[in-house]
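Subject: for your reference before the review

Hello V.,

The reviewers asked for a structural picture of the protein, and I figured it would be easier to keep everything in one thread rather than splitting it across files. Below is the amino acid sequence we used in the manuscript, unchanged from the supplementary table.
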Amino acid sequence: MFKAIANAFKVPDLRKKILFTLGIVILYRIGAHVPAPGVDVAAIAQVAAENAALGFLNLFTGGALERMSVFALGIMPYITASIIMQLLKAAIPTLEQMNKEEAGRRKITQITRYLAMGIALVEAIGMLWIFRAGIVDVEGIPWLTPVMIVGTLLVGTALIMWMAELITQRGIGNGMSMMIFTSIVAQFIPTFVEAFMMGTLVQNLSLVAVTVVALLAVIFVVIYIEEGQRRIPVQYAKRVVGRRVFGGSGTYIPLKVNGANVIPMIFASAILTIPAQLAQMMPRVEWLQNVAEFASGPMFLPPEVLMMLPWYASWGNWLITFILIVFFAYFYTALVFNPIEISDNLRKQGGFIPGIRPGHNTTKYIEHVMNRITLPGALFLGTIAVGTSIFFSVTGNSMIMQFGGTSIIIMCGVALETMRQIEAQLKMRNYEGFFKK
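And here is what came back from the structure prediction:
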């Protein structure tokens, strides 16, 4: 592995991409520690500590929420806007047609940005109301401080979207996933250390052993599923062009068991944060409080109540998480994988699947196979996410419980995808990569 890392820095283009990505990540973490103007950081931290529901939201901002920093809203507004646009593209034929053209895709991206800023505006106002006890008003102009804070949070959201797109275009990995990965990793080590200091020595050693075993198991399973493929054999007919004979060779279409990668977990996490955010904005709406408590699990409850609950109190959150992961696995795979396009390309190139007639039959066959292999991949991801959360909940440590299986899968999946991109770059230049055959 160390040899592969050294080889990666020997390639000028790859070295620039890696350093560029690291630079953006460092800037993102610096912004997470810069408080917005007109806030009392100590008072904000106290409100965040007393409100357990904010712990789940704070996780995906890398601790920026509890500091009311410039990047307090994180990447979640952009993810929520992306989910809405993906759903609209599947429901509105005009957007689906626009997505097939380069100019149309740019227009959809621009609409997604505007929608993200609208969502960020609503969340900024709600956050301002939640942390109102930590706001320091300007003397003589009481409305100036709220306006500055909301404006700062909106600018921070725009900067995060811009940095995520820069990573996708000029760096390594998917920018949106990289931002989530950075936020979770930034919170993981301090949370684990704090959880370790809460119990006795025997309890701490047991906690370390349980956590290490769970992490290694999840990493192994995630890599096993990520590398799983269903290979559909393809045969090409022979063609005579002049005196040369082309075709006649065999190949295959690799269909990944988990074609959506970590996107289902990211989308599911974004959806689960919505009830908690709305409940914090409207604390007097009883039915909304009940929905947030059911969807967010016991982390929505105060810490003193949380310690008294049994480990299975999060069953509502686990059920919704499992369903959302399975749904988004199918949904995102259907968006990025087009059986009709693959069938048409095979027909134009003179290829066919043995035993299957070209055209409509080939399309139906590929779609049937993709649906079959997506099901075990989606169920497996949902089981790992929920199972690991249950495993940590049994420990009874509220600090570790807030991570759960979803966060671990996101960390493993994003790291694996980034390593795969570096691997491809090294293979193009005849270097030995990370993965040994």
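For the response letter, the relevant points are probably these. Residues 84 and 112 are 9 Å apart (CA to CA). The mean pLDDT is 77.

Happy to draft the paragraph if you're swamped.

O.
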